[in-house]
Model the fold of this input.
Amino acid sequence: MYGIINQSIQDLVVKEFGEETWLKIIAKSRIDVHEFQNHQVYDDAYTYRLAGAVSEVLQTDLNTVLKMFGEFWILEISMKKYPSMMASGGLSFKEFMLNLPNFHNRVYLTYPELIAPEFKVRMDGDSMLVEYHSQRPGLTAMMEGMLHGIVKMFKEQGILIVLEAEKISSDLDHDLFRIIWEK
Done:
């Protein structure tokens, strides 16, 4: 993964829990890199080890950590570092989500070696189905956090995000989220 992911984990931890907590996480993760370069590609193992160390040090479930990071990624990283790219996704939550399958085409211009997930999004009656296809295992909760972050980005109310099927525990080749507009 690109260093910006690991740098963003550091940003989240330092902002929410302080520098001292981050130093404990680095020590726990046994990672030999202490300053990540945003545009450098690092082994995915670094990111997984960091997430695991955050979970251990904060004494919280790994999925909770990944959800927190996903939301942080949207609201604190994407919105602040890439505002024009985020704005180009659409003027509403629904429009942004329907454009999501094409979103990473713009990201590849900045990060050409990116191994990005793929999305298939479609309306299903009054709700929306979002297929999350990723080569990287174990990031479903992060995607769920990102979806919550996108809801907050558009200041939407009354939207429910339901994980209907997980790749790891189904015969699907993807995770499946249903987005419901509460009435």
